[in-house]
Amino acid sequence: MRLKSIISCFAIITITATTSLNAAEKIFRAGAFAADITPIKLPVIVNGGMQERLADKVVDHLHARCLVLDDGEQQAAIVVVDSCMVPSDILDHAKEMASKATGIPTSNMLIASTHTHSAPSVFGALGSDVDKEYAAFLPGQIAKGIVNAHKRLQPAEIGWAMSPEPKNVFIRRFLMKEGTGKTNLFSGTKNDRAQMNPGYKNKNVLEPIGVPDTDVWVLALRSPAGKPIALLANYGTHYAGAPALSADYFGVFCELMTNRLPKADEDFVALMSNGTSGDTNCYDFRRPERRKFDRFTVAEDVAQAALKAYGKIEFQKWVPLVMHEEVISLRVRLADEAEVAKAKEYLKQFEGRKPKELDEIYARETVLMSELPPTRSLKLQALRLGDLGIGAIPNEVYSSTGLDIKKNSPLKATFVMELANGCFGYLSPPEQHKLGGYTCWRARSSCLEVDAEPKVRAKVLELLRKTTE
Ligand SMILES: [Zn+2]
User: Fold this and answer.
1) Helices assigned H by DSSP within 371-451
2) How far is the CA of 118 from the centre of ligand 1 (A)?
3) Taking the model in full, what pTM does it have?
């Protein structure tokens, strides 16, 4: 008995010594690069609003901010693109080019959009079409960014931490008094009880539907000498608003971090990813009037939180990198034949021009959707870096989904990047579909089956669990 315990004790010491020796030998590396994706030719079509816009000036430059990580066995790329949303075919093209040049498998590449509403359109949604020239330009620029980040791989220490920022994230869907919720002729919803952005002092407002996620997460990489290499942040509010073309608060945040992080120089790259902002924005409609904010104030507040979080980071010399990807097929909420026929008839009223009114926009969406396949293939991902998990979802995701993933993740810390690896519209949970409202109105930007959210959420959690096996 005694001998046995001595032997097992010796065995444990040996194993511990071997593991720590291996960990000491292992080198973690990181490389970052911000590729300029500002269009060369103007004007360009800008999407994100109900109606299409044209932009003919560059307010600030747009980037694909790329981070490549390497634990000695696996490499992964994380890219944040200054775009409202980028469809999977464009991203798959970029990934293939970058994979050929770097050897990183495409399944280890996570490319997400910031969801700035002041960038060239590469996805047709609501009143806006695709800017075809820009859509052809974008994938090559993203690929170049990944290749350059890969070239810059260097030994790195890694760490992460969170600090809350509740001043710029509010639920934008409100429960309305019966019969007062906004709707339109072709929404595919009935008796809408939810309304987005009801305005201030609206007497028909009952309460916000849900709770926002106020976390600002930062994942930081620095050289062994302590020089910052990159910082990836994550915050779940919609854009703040900027004249086109602009990277909105996401771009301002990156500039602030470059200026404020001690020892950061021109090689340092900051990335601000969008968390779960499908049902949130910067407005607080419970106040009597609009509080003052713009992309600069939002970026300032979020940067303050990010710097606070950065100060708490305990950097590690090496962590394991594990990434999993899976594609799931989901059905689409399609209009029936009678609705499509009615919508086609309605389109005749504004033949030869773009839609303007809500009914016109959704009539066009009804017809366009009827010409698309009845299913969509969504790429879901989970990336683990030590005790940190990152979930990636190709939708505009509600706060409740993100908070549930954070709560039920097997990892100590987790955050979710939305509009990643594609764009398949709002991911409204089934109970939210019952309430209707803008994010549930049937369109290419809100098209998935009513039961899509629980399926996506369960799969992301499953992938996160798989990274720990
Ligand atoms: Zn949006």
Assistant:
1) 399-408, 430-433
2) 11
3) 0.93
